[in-house]
Amino acid sequence: MKNCDEWKPFIIMIAIDFSFATVNILLKKVLEEGMNHLVFITYRLSIATIFVAPMGYFWERNVRPRLTFQILCYLFFSAVVGASITQYFFLLGIQYTSATFSCAFVNMVPVITFMMALPFGIETVNIKCNSGKAKILGALVCIGGALLLTLYKGEPLFNFSHYESAAPVAKSSAVKLSSARTAERWTIGVIALILGTMLWSSWFILQSKISKRFPCQYSSTAIMSFFAAIQSAVICLSTDHNLSTWVPNGKIQIIAILYAGMIGSGLCFVGMSWCVKKRGPVFTAAFSPLVQIMAAMIDIPVLHEQLHLGSVMGSILVMIGLYILLWGKSMEMQNRVTKLVQQAEEIKEQELQPQRQVHLTVSCDSHRKRRVLVVGKGRRTLVRRAPITVVVGGRNTARRRSPTINVG
Questions:
Q1: Is the distance from CB of 129 to CB of 317 less than 8 angstroms?
Q2: How many domains does the chain have?
Q3: Residue 360 in 3-state DSSP?
Q4: Boundaries of each EamA domain copy (predicted)?
Q5: What is the pTM of this model?
């Protein structure tokens, strides 16, 4: 049972990444059919709210804390940095640059989250310990693998001459760009990708704070999705006034909206919130590059997408860096548990240790008053007299002959 609990966050995050990869493939198909990406986001978040809200109401009504205005503000900003504005910036960046270029920013999320967690004290790095060295090394290897995965194409590994070679997919859609891309559009796209990456990384930090104040994953996800749906609808209506874009066309679009809403934005955010609560934001963000790898694994046999050497080499480096980083996190948790157990044992020993008192009877040959020296825990009374003789167990330790102390 203990081993099952330890592996549960790993299994949940792998399932979440597989679901995100499936959402990305469906998103790619519906956008190729001409669906507005902001409309897709709005429908997706609305379905997530309808799907998760009953679960949060019935399953958490006995343990849910009071919903204060401060918690609502946290959830509102969580919707901004985790759903609505973040997805808008990512899709805008893809539209103005390219899907391949945007992958480099998405794969930087674990490292940026790790760096953002250090000032807040959520993550600590002790370079003298092996766990701290492993976390730094794993982060650097992940950076190298992510850059190689997205910036180096390499030779094609399969012969799909009748299909166009596609770049790996990572939480983004393949939006085609015109060949005549201006420098201004490219600059806007880079700025949008930087903002999207920073916001997505900050969501993991913010979620670690929310999980402490409002530890109800289903309720928090429902409220966050509700706020994000309103925000996305406002952005969509302000940028596109054509109401005909809100009508889905075909079964693929309906299936994609339902799956992305119930699974992608519903259960996946619940699972990520739970993993942030259990293992921290860096652990949860470290699995982000796996979305790109899993999407490529689905694209090759199903959609006959091309696989290149750079993708394989980058994926291997990302997996190695992820393993090193998670190993460092595991070692750090084991060290913390060991220290807590040692401290608990020391406190227990101190509480069980009886309070000992030593009674010393002082007798003076000169018929002065008898004094008692009591030595106990936390107090001491000194006998200030002339040179004395101490009798211990019948033996005299003679310094001078008066007075005499009998130890009993």
A1: no
A2: 2
A3: strand
A4: 11-150, 188-326
A5: 0.66
